Amino acid sequence: AQSVTQLDSHVSVSEGTPVLLRCNYSSSYSPSLFWYVQHPNKGLQLLLKYTSAATLVKGINGFEAEFKKSETSFHLTKPSAHMSDAAEYFCVVTPPRGYSTLTFGKGTMLLVSP
Amino acid sequence: DADVTQTPRNRITKTGKRIMLECSQTKGHDRMYWYRQDPGLGLRLIYYSFDVKDINKGEISDGYSVSRQAQAKFSLSLESAIPNQTALYFCATSDSRQSYGTQYFGPGTRLLVL
To answer: pLDDT tens across A51-67, in order?
Structure first.
């Protein structure tokens, strides 16, 4: 069984300040992990994925995430927020090698103020 | 052109009506999925299909049915719509030849059941 918990339903930051979106996972095996982003009235877009090759994963638009097995965490970060980062972010877990389905977290809404 | 398309994009229907949501993809992927998104609940899997002859129930399949007409087409039906099926519905695809199960999403169908 697998599950994912996004620790904050909403995160507010000012433009130019760092972003931290927190995600903890539970899995009975070493998982694959993803972050997806959903901009208003849009579909979901893959930001980045962890597939056991490297624990620090870089994604699009300056985002990165670090897989920490000891903490069962996969937090998403960005050094400097931009107004265009305002969106909903989903942490997702799946068993390795993609032989099963995805399990989504409930989402974190990122609000960016000028 | 979009790789994963969904029709209609918006639909209003009445309780008890049968409706169909359609999904088409040009990515050549063998796997297709239907999700629903509700505020604060993330995405939940309704049905998935790993190839044309394979259909599987997801987390919340009650009240829904699907048809995989071809590798590129996967339709979701609500046999008798009810108001709590009001939601945003997403179709997604993935390629079994890619080891880590990245899914690619359509733009979504917003359904309102009165």
So the answer is: 877 889 999 999 999 99
